[in-house]
Design goal:
This protein is of the alpha/beta class. A hairpin with a 4-residue loop joins strand 7 and strand 8. It has one domain: NAD(P)-binding Rossmann-like Domain (Rossmann fold, 3-Layer(aba) Sandwich), CATH 3.40.50.720. The protein is globular and about 50 Å long.
Length: 252
């Protein structure tokens, strides 16, 4: 690391669990973020400020006035711009030397498979069940850990789905593809602004722990937050031996 890099990430380097070696692992890591909205904003900003080696942002939407209530990577003067371009500008304003790739598109299965296979960790910040299932399937196929968050109204949830572990479930073990819930979106249901910041920041923390090789991940546990009372509920989620997505995949 250069002297400037040592200074920039000195507060990480001072942590015994991280040190120079952990920060170098973060700098060498590749993160793929699906969605650059409410969850994707804090995810991108925290991964960028932590010095992630390459950050790829995928979203096909543009910044809208209604986004600014919670999507903190975007600003009023970037209304109408692609969200990925806006989020990229926000990250580079913090750390201009970073490699931030902005993909303004909704990825099909082949493109998603290629993007996931080239990542060290994937963060699902999307807002619909079909995308979550597609991202999970690609992560299972490539044996890449997935950190998925969701937030609507005052309710949030978070987990890490890491099928590199023999005992860990994938997203579809707990939320089967055939049992899609009714779609609820912020545009119709609303969302408490700080909620996406809380969940997104925790997604970033989980991803950084994974790539740095520190701490214990949320694999096998699902955390749910009721922001009305700020009460967390954690439940153990087992692997489904008959899961249609991961049951036939080899495990470590």
């Amino acid at each position: 690391m250069t002297d400037e890099e040592l200074l920039r990430w000195s507060r990480h380097i001072l942590l015994d669990e991280l040190g120079v070696e952990g920060q170098e692992r973060i700098r060498a890591a590749r993160a793929l973020v699906i969605g650059a909205g409410g969850l994707g904003s804090p995810v991108a900003l925290y991964l960028g400020s932590a010095g992630i080696g390459r950050l790829t942002l995928v979203d096909d939407d543009a910044v809208d006035l209604t986004n600014l209530q919670r999507q903190i990577a975007h600003t009023h003067d970037r209304i109408g711009q692609p969200k990925v371009a806006s989020a990229r500008a926000a990250v580079l304003a913090i750390a201009p030397e970073l490699d931030v790739v902005a993909l303004e598109r909704r990825v099909d299965a082949d493109a998603l498979a290629a993007l996931v296979a080239d990542a060290g960790v994937v963060l699902d910040c999307s807002d619909n069940f079909a995308t979550r299932q597609a991202v999970n399937g690609a992560c299972v196929a490539a044996a890449v850990p997935l950190v998925a968050g969701a937030a609507i109204g005052f309710d949030g949830q978070l987990s890490t789905w890491d099928t590199r572990r023999a005992d860990a479930p994938c997203y579809a073990c707990v939320f089967p593809p055939a049992s899609a819930p009714p779609e609820v979106r912020c545009a119709t249901m609303g969302v408490f602004a700080p909620l996406v910041g809380i969940i997104g920041a925790m997604q970033a923390a989980e991803a950084l722990k994974l790539v740095a090789g520190i701490g214990t991940s949320l694999a096998g546990r699902l955390q749910m937050l009721d922001a009305r009372s700020m009460e967390w509920t954690t439940i153990s989620v087992p692997r489904d031996p008959e899961c249609p997505v991961c049951a036939s995949r080899p495990r470590a």
